[in-house]
C-alpha cells in the first residue's frame, strides 16, 4: 500500500488543476493599520518563508490562469514599502496569484518620472518570466478588501476606485491611477505609458486617453470592494507638480504612437533580489 500511495503521489505531481475563478480563501474587508514599528526585517520574518527569492510566489495547490508582475514605481519610500509588502503578500497569496513584485527605483535625485519607471518595469519583468498581466501599483496604496483581484480583465482595470483620501469616492470619472492592471497585450496595444511626463501629474490621464483611443473601455470593481487606504505623506522632493503636464494630456492622440514602449530608453544600474521583492534601479536619463 505504501508503494501505491507513492505512485499515486508521483502521478499527480505536475498535473495540478487550474485555480478556481473565485479564490476560496478570501476574507473580504480587511483591517489596515500603519504600525510605525514595522520594518523590512520584520516583514521578511513574517511572510518571507512563503516566497521565492525576488518576491515570487506560485499557489501550491493549483495553476494560476495568469502570471502577474506587480510593478511599483519607487524612490526613497522604504517605510511605505514595508507596509505594502506586509499587507499585499498575504492578500496576493490568498488570491492564488502566480506573481512577482518589482520595485522600480529611480536612480539619482533628478526629477521623478513615474511613467517611465512603469515602462522599464514592464520590460525588465518580461526578461525574467513570461508574465501576461501587469499591475502598476503606487507604494502607498493598500487595498481594504481582498476580493479586489490583482489580475487582468477583458478591459484595462482601475482597481483603486474608492480611496480614503478622497472620502471613498472617485474624484473624477476618468481617474485611472493609483493601482491599475493591463494585460501584456493591452499594454502593448497602447504603447505603454508616455516617457515624457517629468514631475507630478498627468501621466495617468495620458494613459487613460491611450486606453480609450485603442481599447475603448476600462473596467472597475464596485466601490465597496475597490476601497483603499493611502499612507499619508508629504509631497516628495524632486516630484513637484509640473504645470506643463495638463497641456500634454490634450496631445495624446498625436503623441502616443511614437512616445511609449517603442521609444523607451533607460539604463539599469542595479538588480537586487530581496526575499520580498526584486529591486531594479534605473537611470531614466533625466534631461539636463
Ligand atoms: N514615488 C516614490 N518616490 C517619490 C515620488 C513618487 O516612490 O519620490 C512613487 C510612489 O510609488 C508613489 C507614487 O510614485 O506612491 C505616486 O507619487 P505620489 O505619492 O507623490 O503621488 P500622490 O498623488 O501624492 O499620491 C501627491 C503628493 C500629495 C501631497 C499631499 C500633502 N498633503
UniProtKB/TrEMBL annotation:
Pathway: Protein modification; protein glycosylation. Residues 157-233 form the Galactosyltransferase C-terminal domain. It holds the Pfam family Glyco_transf_7C. CDD domains: b4GalT (cd00899). Its cofactor is Mn(2+). Responsible for the synthesis of complex-type N-linked oligosaccharides in many glycoproteins as well as the carbohydrate moieties of glycolipids. This is Beta-1,4-galactosyltransferase.
